[in-house]
Design goal:
The structure holds 2 protein chains of 2 kinds.
Chain A lengths: L4 H9 E5 L3 E5 L2 E5 L3 H10 L10 E4 L19 H15 L2 E3 L9 H7 L8 E4 L13 E4 L2 H10 L1 E5 L2 E8 L8 H12 L7 E6 L1 H4 L3 H9 L8 E3 L4 H7 L8 H12 L11 E6 L6 E3 L7 E3 L16 H11 L14 E4 L7 H11 L9 E4 L4 H9 L2 H8 L2 E2 L20 E4 L14 E4 L2 H10 L11
Parallel strand pairs in A: 3-4, 3-6, 4-5, 6-7, 9-10, 9-12, 10-11, 15-16, 15-18, 16-17, 18-19
Antiparallel strand pairs in A: 1-2, 2-8, 13-14
Helix pairs in contact in A: 2-3, 2-5, 6-8, 12-14, 12-15
Chain B lengths: L5 E9 L6 H4 L19 H4 L24 E4 L11 H9 L3 E4 L4 H9 L3 E4 L2 H13 L4 E5 L4 E3 L5 E3 L4 H9 L3 H6 L2 H14 L12
Parallel strand pairs in B: 1-2, 2-3, 3-4
Antiparallel strand pairs in B: 1-5, 5-6, 6-7
Classes of the chains: A alpha/beta, B alpha/beta.
Chain lengths: ~475, ~210
């Protein structure tokens, strides 16, 4: 029987086939953050239930913490301190490892967990956070859940699940220079829609996917949740092993050898069958930018806001009309050249060291246009330190970017720091929903390069037109 | 969890596609780490005239007197997309919503509904539109969600059946606690882990790295 990577991992983790077609599935890693994870732990402890395998659960502060230098438990978000302290106390009480505010390994959970080798190929991993699909980039089966299911996994090291269907998205061809994994993720959403992956484990395959470095793969898988997928996954290969080897929680010595062999064998068998197969040509992808309030409302950067009836796959006509109104854009308006108010580089989608290096190479020797608020928030404290060791922070600061401590920051507005009403922001994040980044804020999603180029121009700008 | 068998109640149509969890409960409304006190923040961005205000926007469906006390919500496709925050379902449940009828659900949101006794009813868009039109035309916009029979019924007797997994139906009808159910398998899980430990020792931190 030829099997997909998903089937291999699933079968290895199936503890029991329960009545009615539900499987009891072993969970290898549980990640928690102070926004939704602290409460899962608290509720579990309050019912008198211990964590089943505390050494396999990890907590980190990322969502609510401020990102200003010299930060503390105090937050701009009202009541944020309560979330931080509740999570800290619950982690201590439950005996699980916490990467606190001042820990050198602190970072956005989806950035720091691969960095530490907490995420391993072939492992099952859950976190009460939708972007947990990111970690599928390492060949782990990693998915987002709610607080109740996190509590369930903490209590039992298992979850009851109906086996999801499988989809393979094969991306052949080559991404053009200046076109990144983020552009590919956005282009896929534009082509197949935000419901396109609903209920599926989406395996990304094909030469363009294999050509991506690990950080690009993390970006691609990150937006699996925007595709409504159960999760996204990429088979481990030599790049995966090279990335994982030597990380703090990764196996060593003889165990490493055994693990590496197992992990490479996880790749889907030639001829394995999927419920759905899609294909896509990487050569067709340009730098992409969203125009609306759903990630599927996206166009190549040299295109215009679609006219009525022109983009049937980007939401109903009424949704598109609503999005145009919210964004303050008319049909036919070219995206490139639109004046912006702010530029944001950060989030679990695009805040890793390679993202910062590419943005910095465009910013080198240039200045952010007058009046533009520009912010860079490294995805982890480790990324920040690496960037500082390379002098990238000086490039960002000399250009006029604020250089922050790591965290989720202004990817979403929680009542603290935000962009202003009607402010037009080019952002390397993942969601352009109404008021996501601030009340009335207008978000355009794009790659870090496009954010950097736009910050320099003071307008939405094509990064390919700025030679680095 | 409160068991659900059948419910006849006011039903409010909000037929937008892709209603995200940021819209259901904006992050700025998630003030208490306990997850309580969320009913007021439900749909805050649409329900009130301005961000942060509590001045009702009269155009918003739940503010219309005829839909007061709604316990059933009808939406467009892909409802609950976006953030996994269970607060979205807690806000719905605290407001009083016990069933959501939609053409499709975001998978995490759907799991969160089930975990909190909110019945996710999947029906084709055409049917949801028909139901919404009937509600909009009715003086008293009510319908029945009968989980036992897996039916949605209008007061005039028109009915539609819906699919739901048997174990989900049972859990919702009995108000079962999934953690208690799984803990019945505790020794099976322990045995499985012991065997798995030999196959994949690196998962188990036999020599856990120090902090």
């Amino acid at each position: 029987m030829k099997r997909t990577i998903f089937e291999k991992i699933w079968e290895q983790h199936r503890i029991e086939a329960l009545p009615g077609g539900v499987d009891l599935v072993l969970i290898d890693r549980i990640l928690l953050h102070e926004r939704t994870g602290g409460i899962a732990l608290r509720r579990l402890l309050d019912r008198g239930q211990p964590v089943f395998a505390p050494d396999q659960a990890f907590a980190v502060m990322d969502h609510i913490v401020d990102t200003f230098p010299g930060r503390s438990d105090k937050t701009l978000m009202p009541t944020g301190t309560e979330f931080i302290r509740m999570t800290r106390d619950a982690a201590r009480e439950a005996g699980i490892r916490l990467f606190d505010l001042d820990d050198p390994a602190q970072g956005i959970v989806h950035v720091m967990s691969p960095e530490l080798g907490i995420v391993l190929p072939g492992a099952t991993l859950i976190c009460p956070d939708s972007h947990t699909c990111s970690q599928g980039a390492l060949g782990a089966l990693a998915w987002g859940i709610g607080t109740s299911e996190a509590e369930h996994a903490l209590a039992t090291s298992a979850l009851r699940l109906r086996r999801p269907k499988t989809m393979r998205v094969t991306v052949d061809g080559t991404l053009a220079p200046g076109v990144t994994a983020k552009d590919l993720a956005l282009a896929l959403l534009g082509r197949f829609g935000v419901g396109g992956g609903s209920g599926y484990v989406v395996e990304y395959a094909g030469e363009a996917v294999r050509a991506l470095e690990m950080e690009g793969r993390l970006t691609l898988c990150n937006m699996g949740t925007e595709f409504a997928a159960f999760t996204a996954i990429i088979a481990p290969d030599g790049k995966t092993l090279e990335y994982v080897k030597g990380r703090r929680f990764a196996p060593t010595g003889a165990e490493w050898e055994k693990a590496a062999e197992q992990w490479l064998a996880l790749a889907s068998d030639e001829g394995a069958e999927y419920d759905v197969e899609l294909s896509f040509d990487a050569g067709d992808v340009a730098p992409m930018i969203t125009w609306g309030t759903s990630p599927q409302q996206v166009v190549p950067i040299d295109a215009a806001v679609p006219a009525v009836g022109e983009a049937p796959g980007q939401g109903t006509e009424s949704a598109q009309a609503r999005a145009r109104e919210y964004m303050g854009l008319d049909s036919g308006t070219p995206l490139a050249g639109l004046p912006i108010d702010a530029a944001f580089i950060g989030s679990c989608t695009n805040s890793r060291i390679s993202d910062l290096r590419r943005a910095a190479s465009l910013l080198q020797g240039r200045k952010v246009a007058p009046g533009i608020k520009a912010i860079c928030v490294p995805g982890s404290t480790s990324v920040k330190r690496q960037a500082e060791a390379e002098g990238l922070h000086e490039v960002f600061q000399a250009a006029g970017f604020e250089w922050r401590e790591s965290g989720c920051s202004m990817c979403f507005f929680a009542g603290g720091e935000s962009f202003g009403p009607q402010d037009r922001v080019v952002s390397s994040t993942n969601r352009n929903f109404e008021s996501r980044q601030g009340p009335g804020t207008r978000t355009h999603l794009a790659s870090p390069e496009t954010v950097a180029a736009s910050a320099i121009a003071g307008r939405i700008a094509d990064p390919r037109r700025i030679a680095s | 969890m409160e068991p659900f068998t059948t419910l006849t109640a006011t039903a409010a149509p909000l037929l937008r596609d892709d209603i995200d969890t940021d819209a259901i409960i904006p992050s700025r409304e998630m003030r208490s780490p306990s997850g309580q006190g969320l009913a007021e923040g439900l749909f805050a961005g649409w329900r009130y005239k301005a961000i942060g205000s509590r001045d009702p926007n009269p155009d918003f469906v739940l503010n219309q007197p005829v839909y007061a006390g709604a316990r059933i919500l009808l939406t467009g496709a892909n409802v609950g997309c976006g953030s996994s925050r269970e607060h979205a379902v807690w806000a719905l449940a605290q407001y009083g919503i016990r069933a959501v009828i939609a053409p499709s659900f975001n998978p995490i949101f759907r799991g969160n509904c089930i975990a909190n006794g909110v019945v996710p009813v999947s029906l084709p868009m055409e049917t949801v539109s028909t139901l919404a039109s009937a509600l909009e035309a009715a003086g008293q916009p009510e319908l029945t969600v009968d989980l036992e029979q897996q039916l949605v019924v209008l007061p005039d007797g028109q009915q539609w059946s819906f699919d739901i997994e048997p174990e989900v139906r049972e859990a919702l009808m009995l108000g079962l606690d999934p953690i208690d159910l799984t803990l019945r398998y505790r020794s099976r899980i322990q045995d499985f882990r012991a065997t798995d430990h030999d196959a994949r020792p690196w998962i188990y931190f036999r020599n856990a790295p120090s902090a």
